[in-house]
Amino acid sequence: MAAPLCGCGKPTWNGLWNSLCNDMACLGPPQPAPLCGCGRPTWNGQWNEICSWGCSGPKVPRPSPAGCARCGCGKPTWNGQWSETCSRGCPGPRVPAPVAPPSAGSAICGCGKPTYNGKWNETCSKSCRGPRLPGPAFPPGGGGPVCGCGSPTWNGQWKELCRRSCHGPRLVGPGVAAPRCGCGNPTWNGKWNETCSRSCPGARIPDPSLPIVGPTPVPVPVPGPVPGGRPVCGCGQPTWNNQWRQYCSRSCHGPRVRAPGDTSPLIYRLDPTTKDFADLAQYYQKTWDKGGKSSFSMPPIKDIWDVTDDNLRSKFLTRCKHIGHVGTFGSGTTPGNVQRRFHGTKMKCTFSGSPCSDASCGVCGIIKNGFLMKYAIKGNNPSSLFFGRGLYSTSASSSALRYAKKPKSTTIDGAIFVSLVACGKCEKLDGSNLTDTRLEDQDGPPSGCHSRVVNNPHDAVSYKNLASKYGTPLLYCDDEVVVFDEDAMMPRYLITFQ
Fold it and tell me: Parallel, antiparallel, or unpaired for β 338-346 and 268-269?
């Protein structure tokens, strides 16, 4: 059998075809192995032969020199490949390989060689400059999964691109675009009007198949609904649950929008048959007297009101954004490490959906103005400043009811707020370690923190001093959360009692 030869006629350095000889200056080019027409090597290593006596071939002649890879100057390329020059100093030009019409399904690079992975929209190698070819278009209404640019997707699946650098868009089917974030990536849940992730600032894109409803397209957008349209948030996007009086997302500043013709207040009573009412009632019952130390029976709920104020909510979201993405605990969400907590206070009126004008009514004051630091003063409440001058809340509904009833009595003269609290970074303390009153009336949060959490506050000396003066309380407090910024606490719902 003939030895494998370099293009110069000498034996190859390693005894294999497609290699050069031992001469470092040899330009070759490398020669392919002689093949039979069936695709197997010839029996004697010579062109124009068959692979075996029983093969019908056909016999393949030696490729003519014209088939060798040539530089634009006429010399063989330095590595025997098309689209190269003969040497570093040669100005070329580079000549692409002569391309025969590709067979059905064969993927080629723009230089004429097959792509490295046999797929369209790729190059033949990392160093090749292509260009990338999109390949034959799929017939209308048929064919496989394609990217929005018309090329097949990289993995043969819908909702994908042909390659990382392609701008798509992604398609869920022939001609149907997939839900995407304003940054171009798919939305996190596969639905329109969402972003690809919590941290992405990309714009939310509404479903293009739905009629456009929302602000009038003028230079200064005017939020509000179009009569007869679908429920929208004040920003013009559809509401998250397709209901009026809602926001499009948790992070939207709104404002909320009433249905066309609806003039009722935005504060409204929850329907006891709804899931929201059931969830809040369960939250109230589940957190009642978690320690089992209280001697006060759980009072039944009369009503639950949605008391969200757009202005207070906007300030709260700004505060959360200012705190940023910090560690969370429990069911906290980020940014802001937002927790759901209870806050009890007194009520001078019989609340029926509209705040009263009595300045001493704690419930209505909070609904209108939010939680204010000016009321966190010594003497306003005997136990309001035990762990610093701030705004207090608790994870237990029974703990909050302490401040919504008369002292040493089972008579309830207040209500409980379910509030959102931006805790941020917390200083966590245990009441058993608080053996002095150094935290009483202390201003501001601890250094490097946004809030203070005190577990087992009844073990603190401040609580013990209060019990010795006023007697053992009917309701024990499981924990206290103290924030020191008015915008870090927002009233969300109000629970009233019979």
Answer: unpaired
Q: Which residue has the higher pLDDT, 177 or 138?
A: 177
> Per-residue pLDDT tens for 180-222?
776 667 777 777 777 777 767 666 777 665 544 443 333 333 3
Query: At a CB cut-off of 8 Å and minimum separation 6, what does 45 contact?
Result: 1, 2, 3, 4, 33, 34
Per the CB < 8 A criterion, the answer to whether 439 and 463 are in contact is no
Q: Which helix (H) or strand (E) holds 368?
A: helix 362-369
Long-range pairs of 106-112 with CB within 8 A, sequence gap ≥ 24: 107/133, 107/135, 108/133, 109/133, 111/82, 111/83, 112/82, 112/83
The alpha carbon of residue 315 and the mean position of all alpha carbons in its chain are separated, in whole angstroms, by: 23
Backbone phi and psi for residue 364, each to the nearest 5 degrees, phi listed first: -70, -35
Q: Is 375 helix (H, G, I), strand (E, B) or coil?
A: helix
Q: What whole-number distance in Å separates Cα of residue 31 and Cα of residue 150?
A: 38
- The 8-class DSSP code of residue 494 comes to E
3-state helix, strand, coil in the chain (%, to 5): 15, 15, 70
Q: At residue 124, what are phi and psi to the nearest 5 degrees?
A: -80, -25
**Tokens describing residue 112:** 């004429």
3-state secondary structure of 392: strand
**pLDDT tens digits for range 321-359:** 999 988 888 888 989 999 999 999 999 998 988 899 898
Q: Would you give the distance in Å from CA 168 to the centre of its chain? A: 20
